[in-house]
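Checklist before submission:
- one chain only
- standard amino acids only
- sequence pasted in full

Submission:
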Amino acid sequence: MAINVLLVEDDEILVKRIQNHFAETEFTIEVDSTGADALSIVRQRVNLRDAFTLAIIDIVLPKIDGLQLAKELNTLTDIGVIVLSSRDSQADRIAGLAQGADDYICKPVDLLELELRMRALYKRVAVNMDSDESEEFIEYADFKLHPDNRTLITSSGVESRLTEAEHKVLICLISNAGKATSREKISEEIGQPDWSPNDRTVDVLIGRLRKKLNDEKDQKRIVTVRGKGYMLSI
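Returned file contents:
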């Protein structure tokens, strides 16, 4: 079965390398060089049989940059997003995750690494797609979470989709409700085991969860435990 992948990249040499690498695999690569055109195509095909399962997006793009495109895609569909960037700082990685990317790869791109990341992300996205019709929710306090399609519904009825990373953080907090969970532990859960005290990735994800839980101001649901991490209150 073909897996449709949208590659949004204006570097023709890199595009050709990626196309050649995946030519004999199940991944079908479709290329767009601008964020605006890519967004238009995804909108047209979001509910069709040939919809995209994964997107590989360069950060520096004409018309709409890659981070904005990742954010827009996250509101439209469950497509798995991998961001490519020549910037390798922690701040840039956090910015990518903050806009809804599921993974972040630095240039120059190692094609074998890209393929392995794509396969891992596809497994997670495919599970969500196959289970999308399930009506099983995890209910906790004043919100409920659909673990298959990552839908979060607050007590006021506001519905939002969580990114893969946000979902993993919330599941981790629910599993350890009433106990402080360290940033290091949460970082491991989202697939980043090399956590350091200066890494703010977890803090950014917590901030986004608080906003979606309408918990941003009073922080009553997700509590910061000084020196220990975060806790989901009971």
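Reviewer check: The first helix runs from residue 12 to 21.
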